[in-house]
Amino acid sequence: MPRVVVVTGGAGFIGANLAHHYLGQGDRVVLYDTLGRKGCRENLGWLEDHPNAANLDVLIGDVRLPTRPLQAAIERADALFHLAAQVAVTTSVRDPEYDFEVNALGTFKLLELVRNSQAKRPVVFYASTNKVYGGMEDVAIAEGEDRYAYRDLPDGIPEDRLLDFHSPYGCSKGAADQYVRDYARIYGLETVVFRQSCIYGYRQFGLEDQGWVAWFIIAAILGRPITVFGDGKQVRDVLFIDDLIAAYDRAWARIESTRGQVYNVGGGPANAVSLRDLLAVLRTEVDPELAVAHAGWRPGDQPVYVSAIGKAAQDFGWRPRVDWRSGVARLVDWVRDNRPMLERLF
């Protein structure tokens, strides 16, 4: 029998790609989303054109108010991928109550649905964030000509790093992260937490405050203004969407080893990229006259964040396969191929 997969936030960037993948595997996919974010309806249309779209169930709803159809779907699900979220630090600073309700309270309500399931309990995968580690002011940073780097951590930040939630977004996602982990300990749920770094790829309708890799590429191709907050030397370990989906797949296949665990999932040191690095590539590949404005640093913006990904490699044999230059080239091609849709959205 086909597996049943529930994806909250299933019309978002990661959710739509994940839903598309599992439809391709012959699974039944239940998509739960408000369809309120830019590009969600376009992503839904893409999924509805899938050859296996007959296996797609679409539920419109908000994780803050889980619906009875969502509860029924969870009752029969094999896996729940909880990707629905308020995703921007800047939005959390403007409206911390909304941020808390979506990220912390919404996650808690889903966990309760799983815990109280009268049928079977699905494996729960939670998309957390590197922001749970805070500003990491105690970590020594070296400043180079075009980038920051860790002075003493060549492999990046490990999972046993002290948590230090910074910004309302960090607090809400961090609280949810710990609830998901603790429901495995206290209630015996099979849960896996991915502390994701900078994910980018197809069908990402990014902006400056979230999804910066996609936004820089979209803006460069469409001729939209780009603003860099800070000096542009900030570094992130970027991860292509195909590699993230492979990580979810492998973690599910090895659930005997991964349940109850937390993993840093990012591009790792080999894919550590500064904003200036990406802009230099875009000036070469897209527009040599690319203009960039500058503004002040944003709250909670780490000068550098790079994931140590050795635990994922050890526990379920995963490492990124797409290097960042290849991933950027793929996304440039996708943006060019989908320019009319993006012109409408941006």
Molecular structure report:
With 346 residues, the chain is an alpha/beta fold. It has a single domain (85-345), classed as NAD(P)-binding Rossmann-like Domain (Rossmann fold). It contains 13 helices and 15 strands. It has helices at 13-24, 40-48, 68-75, 89-94, 96-115, 167-187, 212-222, 241-253, 255-258, 275-285, 310-316, 324-337, 339-345, and strands at residues 4-8, 28-33, 56-60, 79-82, 123-129, 141-143, 148-150, 191-196, 198-200, 226-229, 235-240, 261-265, 272-274, 292-295, 304-305. The strands form four sheets. The chain has a seven-stranded parallel β-sheet, with helices on both faces. Strands 9, 11, 13 and 15 form a four-stranded mixed β-sheet that branches. A two-stranded antiparallel ribbon has the order 6-7. Helix 1 (13-24) runs parallel beside helix 2, helix 5 packs parallel to helix 6 and helix 7 packs across helix 12.
Task: Report a brief summary of the structure.
This protein is 41% helix and 19% strand. With 346 residues, it is an alpha/beta fold.
